[in-house]
Amino acid sequence: MNLETSPPPAETLGVLETAALLRELTAGLIAVEDFDAALTALVRITRDALARVSWCGFTALRAGEPAGVAASDAPLAGLDDLSYGPDTPAMEAIRRREMVGAENLDAEPRWPDWTPRARELGVHGVISAPVDIDEQVIGAVNLYAGECDVLSSGHQLTAMLLAEHAGLLLAAVRDRERRAALAGEQDATLLADGVIGHAVGVIMTQRGCPADDALQVLRSAASSLSIPLREVAERLVSTVSRPRDN
After folding, report:
1. What is the domain-level CATH number for residue 211?
2. In whole angstroms, how far apart are CA 176 and each of 16, 38, 116?
3. What pLDDT, on the 0 to 100 scale, is given for residue 10?
4. 3 is a domain residue
5. Given pLDDT bands bounded at 50, 70 and 90, which one contains residue 218?
6. Do 150 and 38 belong to one domain?
7. I want to staple 56 with a disulfide (CB 3.0 to 4.6 A). Which of 21, 43, 82, 115 is the partner?
8. Does any domain span residue 171?
């Protein structure tokens, strides 16, 4: 880590600011089911919450290959992906499994392909902290400063805590995403069942609702009656198919 630790600027982050950031991240990501959407929320919340941090990005890899990238500000999006090759702060943090950074990119010899472009975009300081998400996905959260010598020891501590907390939140998002995909597959299988598909069609017509909502109506009825879903569907189809007395 090539960051000076003394003396920190007056705006050194405190416990309350870091706690507020982690609380806001939790609130913003607690119900998200899409990984890319979670990354977008994470970088924007982080940018807005941290003093002297001008931009934030995230680099994610799955089995060593790009799995997602997010930037709080579109012009800087390229700094977080692999367009500059593997020689970037994010990739170094991921490889070394430790936080890396520089307070002054104007005098930074590392990352020779990445650093000049970062300076052109107005980035003069960076901290990248590795994020462990799950067995398949790892990444790095990247804090960027628009001035030299403003990333303090407080930012380093916050980046470390942020990386740990983000890993837990993103792992939960990945789990919800997998569960939602599995549920979608199960729903598709159920809708392909003749009688259940017929019953769903009946409810859609009666209520003017989409198939997902109609299937949930069937599930709720099955749960309330404590009978199998297919039996509820059969009863409904039988009822609507029964000839009416004149």
Report:
1. 1.10.10.10
2. 30, 11, 39
3. 39
4. no
5. confident
6. yes
7. 43
8. yes
